[in-house]
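**Discrete fold encoding**
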Amino acid sequence: LEKAKADLIHIDVMDGHFVPNITIGPEVINKLRKYTSLPFDVHLMISPVHDFIKNFAEAGADIITIHPEATNDLVSSIQKIKSFNKKVGVSLNPGTSVKKVLPVLKLFDLVLVMSVNPGFGGQKFIKDTLEKVKILRKEIDIKKLKTQIEIDGGINFENAIMAKKAGVDILVSGTTIFKENGGNLEKNIQLLRTG
């Protein structure tokens, strides 16, 4: 991915509790860290998340993204992430209202809009989630914030264009990058970036 000119590596961490799948933990992230200098964008789909922030920060995460529903105190969890000098992300599931984050938008480095229900790769993009992106883009621009908007779930060459038009800064893509054009990573990343 680094050779293919990716900007960062998005790592999904799932606990089989907050979402119906289990993936990797801090030990695997720690082992992967030595293979690339790209930022690790670690998306924690685990609950309760607060007590695990330290483990992922120390494992090599550069950005730690959490779900508001996975913590009893969102502001406290944000402060904990910042205490490790990591960037903070908050993630909105398709069913989570954008209103949950608007009052505290300035506290985040990024807002991750999930365009599928999290848990499994290869799902179909939910177009309605772009409305959240538009609301976030307007709010960020009005308040002159540096918060970036990231989108993840079913991103392909066609909907990537729509997402960017709606105001997305960062596209997360798995299936499209690894499977399209015979798995030509560099070509697929370039097509997502320039399309």
About this structure: The first helix runs from residue 26 to 33.
